[in-house]
Amino acid sequence: MAVVGELFGDDLVPREPRELAPGAVHVPGWLSAHQQRWLVDRFREWTAGPVPLHSSVVRGHPMSVRTVCLGWHWRPYQYTREAVDVNGNRVLDVPDWMVRLGRSALDAARGPGAGTTYTPDTALANFYDDDATMGMHQDKDERSRAPVVSLSLGDTCRFRFGNTQTRTRPYEDVELRSGDLFVFGGPARLAYHGVMRVFPGTAPADCGLDRGRINITLRETGLS
Ligand SMILES: O=C(O)CCC(=O)C(=O)O
Ligand SMILES: [Fe+2]
Q1: pTM tops 0.90, yes or no
Q2: Which residue from 54, 56, 76, 182 lies 20 to 30 Å from 91 (Cα-Cα)?
Q3: Residue 23 in contact with residue 163, Cβ under 8 Å?
Q4: What was the pLDDT predicted at 11?
Q5: Ligand 1 atom index nearest CA of 182
Q6: Atom 5 in ligand 1: which residue has the minimum CA distance?
Q7: Before 171, cis peptide (omega within 30)?
Q8: Does CATH number 1.20.210.10 belong to domain 16-219?
Q9: What pLDDT band is residue 1 in, cutting at 50, 70 and 90?
């Protein structure tokens, strides 16, 4: 059995890119281990920057996820340059490499050339500890309807991707693992989605994160 496990363990069966719904594409294992470690290091730099990790307060309740933003600071339901609900400091800029990363992510998910004009001007980097979740929501505080590019690092999570009309069924649960890319744009851009749970201790040893999960979403705000 041990041998079969080594040959056909979950980690070794290739997971192919898949379109869950028109505009919603999951590309498993898109980031190399080296890229994952490098992004985890950048995340640590951001959290040591002008605005620390913080829990946004949604309808009076702090989210269990803690977030640091680049480019624009997000709070429900608006973007500002300064983190007015944290310490008033201006957030770090979106680095050029992140725009290139977003473009190649779209090329990978939707085909060569799909990312040519994509210019994300904000990134929300979320940290999930063992118990953190994110309820079903739409990403709709952006004026632009350009795709959202999502990158996962560290522990695996159960991600729920639903429909544009309701928080409820139909939806599909997928596992997002360290290195996975998920893109939602086009007809799926306003689909409800959320993180049902994190699976502690599932991060690969070489991803640079011992505990917890990081998710980075790149977006175009459409603001100037
Ligand atoms: O953590 C995730 O995979 C999703 C994050 C998300 O939906 C958000 O930041 O709006
Ligand atoms: Fe979201």
Answers
A1: yes
A2: 182
A3: no
A4: 65
A5: 3
A6: 215
A7: no
A8: no
A9: very low
The answer to whether residue 4 scores a pLDDT higher than 70 is: no
**Ligand 2 center–CA 171 separation, angstroms:** 15
Pocket test for ligand 1, best of 151, 193, 196 (most atoms within 8 A of CB): 193
Asked if residue 118 lies in contact with residue 147, where contact means CB atoms within 8 angstroms, the answer is yes
Contacts 24+ apart (CB under 8 A), 101-105: 101/149, 101/218, 102/149, 102/218, 105/27, 105/30, 105/149, 105/151, 105/181, 105/183, 105/218
pLDDT surpasses 60 at 153? yes
Whether 175 is in the pocket of ligand 1, judged by its Cβ within 6 Å, is no
Q: Kindly report the three-state secondary structure assignment for every residue of 60-73.
A: CEECCCEEEEECCE
Q: Residue length, the chain? A: 224
89 burial level (CB within 10 Å; 0-12, 13-18, 19+) = middle
